[in-house]
Amino acid sequence: MARMRRVEADDDRAPLGTDGHAADHLNDHLNDHLARHADGRAGGDPDGAPDDDRDDGPDDDPDGRRDRRPSAGRSRRRGVLPVLAGALAVLVALLVGQAVLDARQRARVAAWTELPGTVRPVGVTAGVTVGDQVEASGVFAVAEGDGAGVAGLVLARRTGDDGVRRVVATRGDDGRQAWTATLGSGPVTVEGDRVEEAGCELGRGPGAPVLCLVQDRVVVWREDGRKVLDPGSRAEVVAIDPRDGTERRRWAVPVADGFAALDDLVVVSVIEADDSVSLRAYDAATGDAAWSRTLPVAADYTAPTDALLSEPVSLDVVGDVLVVTWYLDQGLALVTRDGDVAALPAGTSRVAVADGGLRVLGRSGEGLGSTVRTQGDDALTVGGNVVVPRVDDGSLGDLLLTDAGGLTSWDPRTGAARWTSPVTPAPGPEPVVLGGVLYALQPSSLVALDGATGAERWRHALPEALTGTLLATDGRRLYVGAQEYAYGSEATLEAVGLDGVAVPVTLPEGAYAVEVRGRTLVVRGDSPDGTRSWVAVLR
């Protein structure tokens, strides 16, 4: 009897199935193979190989049906391959689609970080940390940085014991002094008087200079108010390179009551004898005169007295315009970079930037809390006080929000209410709009609302007994500052993702406030013994 051997399918053949046809085919295949093998061993081929040329007798499958019967395994394999190919194609498409979405999201976030009102990105490569504590006296700005070693410089204007006024730059990361620049000698003052120093500002844009108004005018604050002891006769503007403290330029200006950096200009203001305001603008790079304007006051203007402890006129830069405000909002004027003076409607009390444009707001007089929004020649009366987002990416279009009965969104064309949410924003911190979502800080929680419907998406509760005092964003996260409203209470800070997941940030002992200086988040605090105030940069 011939010895039986196990027969395996060829390497390129799939395993056979177990249905009836496949079983018959397997039996036929084995019998045929064994018969050929036995004939070869009996006397055919000495190596036992089958003789393909030999006539093996009558064909028991004359029509060849058995040999042409398809294998179930091969048939099943043919069905599996297209399925696998399709699944692979779907997987590749999903991966490619996700990569495209991730790339788009990264591009959106990159664009968000550059929006007006955002802070410099914090904790990009690691968690949010706090730099070294820097002496807080005289701090007026933190340099945003331009890739030339400027980022994180805390800038302060101080008068030394020798009476010399200087700008001192300290590195926010390690507390080391970077440079000092001399402005000039300070005035002789009476002991106990608080001297009002002329201002310093950091210009806008990469590489913009530090600009300081230096003059011999002496203004002090006493218990009975503001007193001008010496009107002075000399004033100049000093432009300083923020990278190393070198003096770029110095030029003479009139002795001034106000000072502001407007785009690439320096503007000083002088209050004339009739209470009108003279504005002089100079090129910050060259010191050359750009333009001058005189702004008359309203006929019913009432000048302040010293006892009211108020500035008669203030200069504020909003967007790319200069807002000149007279005492107690008795008048406003808008001045563009080119010196054009914009006429404002009667009753105007506030100017803000929203949707990348300017909004002029004022009381309508037609109802308690109603406001007027003016854009071009159109005016619209709506209920409540207008709420202007700190950051707005434009994803909600022309947005008009008020605090009427909660947070209300209005159609700026018709005045109809789009939606009203019971969310009442905390006084002070302004909302943030990113990607169609409105983030608003309530006194006890941070809330994300669908900007189109007002529906609540998520809510993050602040630590118990704390009240929200700051809402800022770098386009990647929201930064929420909070503290107790009690003397000596310490501040807290949380970094909250746009999905509502929060990470607490450890602040130094004695921290009492989190603020935004320019585009930089800083923490202010006192030493444990209360003898020194400090400021630290979040990084």
UniProtKB/TrEMBL annotation:
Q: Which keywords does this chain's UniProt record carry?
A: Membrane, Transmembrane, Transmembrane helix
The keyword Membrane appears for this protein: yes
Any single Pfam family the record assigns to this protein? PQQ_2
SUPFAM superfamilies named in the record? Quinoprotein alcohol dehydrogenase-like
Q: Which residues form a coiled coil?
A: none
Q: Where are the transmembrane segments?
A: 79-101
* Feature: compositional bias, Acidic residues: 48-62
InterPro entries linked: PQQ_b-propeller_rpt, PQQ_rpt_dom, Quinoprotein_ADH-like_sf, WD40/YVTN_repeat-like_dom_sf
Name this polypeptide is given: PQQ-binding-like beta-propeller repeat protein
